[in-house]
Design brief:
Blueprint (H helix, E strand, L loop, with lengths): L3 H17 L6 E4 L3 H13 L8 E4 L1 E3 L9 H8 L9 E3 L8 H11 L6 E5 L23 E5 L6 E5 L1 H4 L5 E5 L2 H12 L17 E4 L1 H10 L7 E6 L6 E4 L2
Length: about 250
Amino acid sequence: MFSFEKTVAELIKKIINKEIAEFPKPVVFLTGGRSASKLYKFLANDCPDLFKASTLYLGDERCVQSTDLSSNLGTISSSWSNIEACCLGFYYINGSALSEELEATRYSALLPKQINLILLSVGEDGHIASLFPFNKALYESKSDVMAVDVQIQPKKRITITPALISRARNVVVMAEGELKGRVLAESLNENLDNFIKYPVSLTRGSYWVLDQDAESAFFAQLKSSSRNLVNIITCATRQAQRRGCK
């Protein structure tokens, strides 16, 4: 059985190898969080060349100094100290900018239209990036990046929007633990337009990577009436399995 980090790494490698055939310099968005931190440590030690042909961007940031423990840039830097030497370029949001709105505008102007892969973690409430349930950012259809206020600390953040996520050719969502598996199932148990309540629903049809606890909770919670198809990947299978949720 593969570790969770190795399972995610193998999937990323498969996606990037596929994308390189058409896009020699793929664009990849990174995420923050505990699962991501463990993944970056694994990549730094075991797969340092994974992003050697890729340009990297940060998907969201908390409006704090990069030395703050909650900073996504700080998390990446501490987990993979030489990441900038292992890719074609690494662009990130300045969490300590004086104006969150101006920083969102600056960062948005840097982003390419072509997006090959977005890496995300799901929260126990179903949020992805800094798109939280019922937040105004979920209604944004034009801007790629915006400043938002959220219900947990740090409250001020800058995040990619649904408009950008919808353009990605591939999305990978990581989920570790029972509560995250449960919220993924809940997001499928409701109607197709429930992304305001469960932002992770924006990634339906993408790859959802679950650890053992998340997988058990996901299938235990899933209603028999659900008929959506999702790409579930587990440490046991090590490969995508399109499962009909019936």
